[in-house]
Write a structure and sequence with these properties.
Distance between the termini: 69 Å
Strand order of the largest sheet: 1-2-3
Oligomer: single chain
Shape: elongated
CATH topology of the largest domain: hpI Integrase, Chain A
Helix content: 55-70%
CATH class of the largest domain: Mainly Alpha
Largest sheet: 3 strands, antiparallel
CATH superfamily of the largest domain: Intergrase catalytic core
Radius of gyration: 23 Å
Structural class: mainly alpha
Amino acid sequence: MNIQDAYTDFILSREAMNVTEKTLGYYEFTLSRIVDYLRDSGVQEVDSLRTYHFRLLLKNLREKNLSDSYIHQHARISKTFLSFLYKEGYISQEIDFELPKIASKHLRVLDVSEIQTLISHCEKLRDKLIILLFVDTGIRLNELCMLDWSDFNLDDGSLLVRYGKGKKFRVVGTGYKVRRLLLRYKSQIGSQNSQSEKPLIQTIHGKRFTTMGLRSVLVRLKEESGIEFSAHALRRSFAKLSVKAGMNLIYIQSLMGHSDIETTRNYVQKLDNSEVLNAQKLHGTVDKYL
């Protein structure tokens, strides 16, 4: 089979698996570039593929000074494509290579004072609610965009996340402060805009935010407050503050919608020395039990 047809069949297989549009776009964007590179390198048929083609691909990307995550993304997609080719019988032998390592980097997490400063610059009730929903629930940006009023249960403060990563449902909780803000916001937008099928967080025209539109709100708040942050930084802040408050890692995993607890662990492992020492004072086994 020629490599272009193999690419088409791979994309069709992902559609048959009913992956999300975002995931499908991720495959199309990255794999099409990999296939273009392979064809430019003289590979026309999949049975001509060898391990060195992919090592050269990664070497070529490194020489362009592209980010570790970008290179790692190409390596992961290449492995998935090669596994598909082998399982479908398009190649007779498995082709494997080592994934490139990603250098450890400091990921932005806001401390309490920064979150308070950010909130103080929120002139609109809606903007304050957006920030606090991220910090109180650990929700993703696209998940927040897709919430409806029917997903909010005032009695227990739960929010039903129906459009989680991988199309997974989960329930997250809100505290009494966020619940009170939601009630004030509901009163502000009126009964017409707070019907069950209406978006929980709305534009000034009562419409649902796109992810790009909500990002623009966060960019504006960043400029107005002088606090460097993103939706994902607020999500990481939720994880770290939850650990500091004593929440079990298993619960944090469930609230964040992680399928692998190691992913959750990566969110919370960067604790300051003072925080680690304080945790020992509070929970040290000898002082507590002996």
